[in-house]
Amino acid sequence: MFYHLARIVSWLPIAMVHPTKIVGKKNLPKGKAILCLNHRSNWDIVLWLSNTGKKIKILAKKELFKNKFNGAFLRWLGGIEIDRSGNDINAVKNCIKALKEDKQLLIFPEGTRLKNEEDILGEIKSGLAMIAIKTKTPIVPIWVERKPKTFRLSRYIIGKPFELSDFYDKKLDEELLEQANQIVREKMLEVREENLKKKKEKQKKKSK
């Protein structure tokens, strides 16, 4: 109850400074899912939560938890701390536990923000694919159109869920995980391409 009240109170000032549009909400499953977003800014988490309202688990770098206030706030939001310098087994276990409890988990598969807005998508790390395969969880590809800027509309495009079912119950090695990573990458880029296609079609209609 307090979570939803806090969201309502914070939504208006955030919406004024960072107007945001979520496209394709019908594609979000009701049960467990991994929400897979490309990473443009530290605002990505805030804008997503303030505009969707559903409390979820969020995999976030440990550096964001160093400040006591920020750390407490992130954990309250559902943050799971991860050390990106190595294989953080504890973070992986917490992610798997959350999905087994039928919760939704937000992950940035690139592991870091793209600093140049011209860059499309960075290297996909294996953590997301491994967790999705081990828990047999659908992945929802979500495309963050561009880096949030003050008073500029941000858009999150939600694609259709997919599963890495061809890899279920297999002994995972680097080769299989790389194949799974490539599928994740392709699905994310498909959402981007579909969005660009729709925008071009709208522009053509307006110019007629």
Labels describing this entry:
single chain; 208 residues; alpha/beta; Glycerol-3-phosphate (1)-acyltransferase; 7-stranded mixed beta sheet; 7 strands; globular
Order of helices and strands: HEEHEHEHEHEEH
- Number of helices, where a helix is a run of at least 4 consecutive DSSP H or I residues: 6
Mean pLDDT: 87
Count structural domains. 1
Structural class: alpha/beta
Q: Considering DSSP H and I runs of 4 or more, what fraction of the residues is helical?
A: 40-55%
Distance between the termini: 49 Å
What can be said about the biggest beta sheet? 7 strands, mixed
> Rg to the nearest angstrom?
17 Å
* CATH topology name: Glycerol-3-phosphate (1)-acyltransferase
Q: How does the overall form come out from the CA principal axes? A: globular
Count the E strands: 7
Question: What's the CATH H-level homologous superfamily?
Answer: Glycerol-3-phosphate (1)-acyltransferase
Structure description:
The chain has 208 residues and is an alpha/beta fold. The chain has a single domain, classed as Glycerol-3-phosphate (1)-acyltransferase, CATH 3.40.1130. It has 6 helices and 7 strands; from the N terminus they run αββαβαβαβαββα. The protein has helices at 2-17, 43-52, 68-77, 89-100, 127-135, 174-207; strands at 20-23, 33-37, 57-61, 79-82, 104-107, 139-144, 154-158. A 7-stranded mixed sheet has the order 1-7-6-2-5-3-4, sandwiched between helices. It is globular, with a radius of gyration of 17 Å. The N and C termini lie far apart (49 Å).
